[in-house]
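TICKET #2291
ISSUE: user wants both folds in one file
ATTACHMENT 1:
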Amino acid sequence: MSHTQLQSQIPSSPNHQDLSETSNSPPRNGPNPMLPESLNNAQNGTTREVPTIPQNQIEQQETRQVVAEDDQEFFKEMRGWLMIVAILAAGSTYQAGLNPPGSVWQEDDKDLHHVAGNPILHDKFFKRYQAFFYCNAISFLSSLVIIIFLMNKTFYRERTRIKVLEITMVLDLFSFMAAYAVGSCRRVTSSIYVFLLMGGVFVYVISFARHYSLLRGFAHQMPCVRPCIRARENQMQHHVRFRQQAEA
């Protein structure tokens, strides 16, 4: 009998089978480097704790996101309105600069020292013309600056830049009103009346806005209005969650 026949007749021992199986199969207790970490944890019976975010923090994040979206929408609408106002102010001041109040001299007059094309207001009321010229120029340049700012979409996304835009707009409007008050009449008393009228209108608008904000704050404290406010907040939070689910 040959040596190979003797080996085939000898039964294989169970220890030999276990060694062959263990040599081919991965260790049962240790992690398998070929499997992901989640499957290794499931096989070993271990779970990895996932940090949970408190509900209050989630609601605060959603509220901040809603406020940011509202601010962006508000800035977008205000950008359009400010652009319209700036364009109208720039057009009016440009026309007033080329054709000042009282028009210009049509022909030369050597006896009266008139030169064709010079403003009549400059020769008759020099100080009034200077006030009109500087106020009109400031308003025109401020309008151009506002238009340039609004053409950049990334400019009005920060509140500090919006403050600069607001200051420029206030300077533009006050210069525009001053140019109108100086150029619309020739008497000092009439100009004073115009300035007083503008100041009264400005104070009325400020007081109305203040009382409106106070009335709005008082209305928010009323019991009959609170459910509406809460419903509005819940609706906004639901809208944010729906958008997050749609994006996911």
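ATTACHMENT 2:
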Amino acid sequence: MITMKYDGHSGVREHIMKMSDMASQLKGMDMAISEGFLVHFIMTSLPSQFGHFKINYNTQKDKWKMSELIAMCVQEEERLKVEKPDMAHLTIGPNKKSFKKVDIPPNSWWIDTDASIHITNSLQGYLTSKRLSKGERTITLGNGTEVEIEAIGTLCLILDTGFIMDLVDTVYVPVFTRNLISVPRLDSYGYELKFGNNGVSLFYNSCLVGSGTLHALDVFKIYKAEVENQLNRRIKSVRSDRGGEYYGRFTESGQHLSAFALFLREHGIIANYTMPGTPEQNGVAERRNRTLIDMVRSMMSNSTLPEFLWGEALKTAVHILNRVPSKVVPKTPYELWVGRKPTLNYLHVWGCPAEAKIFNPQIKKLDSKTISCNFIGYPERSKVGTELKKLTSNEVSTPMMEYGVTQEVSCNENENVPTTECDYDVGLESDPTSYDQAINSENSTLWLYAMEEELKSMKDNEVWDFVKLPKGIKTIGCKWIFKTKHDSKGNVERYNARLVAKGYTQKEGIDYKETFSPVSKKDSLRIVMALVAHFDLELHQMDVKTAFLNGDLHEEVYMDQPEGF
């Protein structure tokens, strides 16, 4: 009972009745609490918005009874609702490329996931505040500049739901153009923000206390126009949950259409809705969201980049998944959508250090033509180039003229992160990843010769027989692996092509029992060299081409014919 606090959500009457019920239970356990102590506990549990109410109570000679306390608290709560400060507008900044410009009130509050403190440009809503000494009057912004603050205190916000939220240690900075709510500060006080379905929800003690929604209809209109104009296709149906922005609301007369649902009906698009509380009916989308979050978590863990770049990691994960086939659908989403297989030779490890070539007409002959960056994603509207962002202004670990995956970025305290992103030409020559790439490359003749040599080796070792596929048997696919061999000086020595089966489509214990890949160990090689030196023997070294083809396969495996032959 001592630790109970009024959350401003259920109503002060219900809060007092709950505490009275607990006092009655204690009385039944021979632990009775006097009415005066109960009133004291209730007054202590009230939030800071009732500050003046508490002062008036403490200055009175006559103390209230429970019935009087309930009536006065309800009256005070109604007064606070009438005289409350302007409603808080929780705002999510839309992407300029995806949303229309809207008029946002100047007193709106912006949720900032990277801000360490709450900041306001107005004294309106402050419950308590104090002036600061000279040494405490400045804060440092993300770009390194310092601004003066004039006061700090607890600010009261009343959300659209009626929930009263206290922003403790909110600083007053008159020169700021926006009011910022710090997500880390909210988290430390028990609040939880959940982003999803193009909206954000605010929870306190597992209860929904506020929400804000992005304009899903505007994004869908842009998507619909692009599909019809670029691909000459039409959207016939849309499946979603029964969220208010998609479904609207259900009344006694039936569905009251939202703007999104009305737009679908006007354009003849069928709207399919899942049942309330059954996310499994939209299982494909829910599972894909889980896959994306797992990929982002892995990418952020593997890199040295700051967490605020998680959005870039998410866009990169989507870019990759659109070019990866699944077990159910053998073709990639990109191929199904565009009609051709995607090119994968430009993919790189997210977050790896890189050197980017910049365009500068005034650059001198001996000036550096590159800058040290970190790879953060792929541009959507550029045919060439990779989106990079410079992390530090003066120091980066050993520069590389290509992408690396092991080097870390040396960051100092004065880290400068520009707000703009640019496209740079960072193309690299790499081995082909498919048969089509090898045939269409500059070295197509050499790659074709390497493939013919591989097939000749398999024919000489009697690796396979051409047979008619029996009924009920499913084949496994195969693919070409291309590798350019270089000598000690970096010159091209030969072109290798290996035909391998897609063994990942088989299951251990059903299709095969064990795998075997003989590789000589360095210790064994050292022993042989020592014996040769000790007995003064002659050592002859030779290379057995396609040595793995000399093994015996006891299982029957039906494989597709190699592409191009």
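RESOLUTION: both attachments delivered.
EXTRA DETAIL ON ATTACHMENT 2: The chain has five domains: 12-82, 90-213, 216-277, 286-424, 435-550.
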